[in-house]
Amino acid sequence: MQTFTSIFVGKEFYMPQKYPKPMIYLHWLTLLFVLTAYFTGDYPPGDGVVGEIHVLSGIIIVILLLLRIVLRMFYRNAQPEHNLSRLQHIAAHSVQMLLYICMALTPVVGYLTLTADVDDFMLFSWNLPYYSVDFSLGKAHKWLANSFIALAGMHAAAALFHHIVLKDNVLKSMSPH
């Protein structure tokens, strides 16, 4: 099993061609909740169930981010190494770090905005903890969310560029099949 180290085959090391299945599934599950949060986001206190779905999606995104970090550490030696130029490597890691920052900040800023707007918020009959803040971060939350979607679009465009133009294994390495 290739969880902690590459497999030694003869005189050469075998590097996996795909990410481990848990990382792949978590990647696509994160996309699902990011899109759900994005398309249900308007004004949660006034949107009923749609607003609750938006807030729940944000909470799940933070949980998925924490799981992603744990899995990246656990599978750090079982991930494919792509043949990228130095510039591509820097760009890929920069976008990835910005995506992770957005995954952390967007829901937190959204939650602070929610608590600035209402004294309590019921999430499917569960009263969310309230933190009193005297200012709304609604504009920052929307800016972060839009930046997050733009970065995700760049990430997807780069994967398609690798698949269609460079014809390498980058996109296939994250495919669930």
Automatic annotation (TrEMBL):
InterPro entries: Cyt_b561_bac/Ni-Hgenase, Cytochrome_b561_oxidase, Di-haem_cyt_TM
Protein topology in the membrane: Multi-pass membrane protein
Organism expressing this protein natively: Pasteurella dagmatis ATCC 43325
Cellular localization per UniProt: Cell membrane
GO MF entries: electron transfer activity; heme binding; metal ion binding
GO biological process assignments: respiratory electron transport chain
PANTHER family: BLL0291 PROTEIN, CYTOCHROME B561
Main localization (coarse): membrane
Taxonomic lineage from the root: Bacteria, Pseudomonadati, Pseudomonadota, Gammaproteobacteria, Pasteurellales
Protein name from the UniProt record: Nickel-dependent hydrogenases B-type cytochrome subunit
Segments passing through the bilayer: 23-41, 53-75, 95-114, 143-166
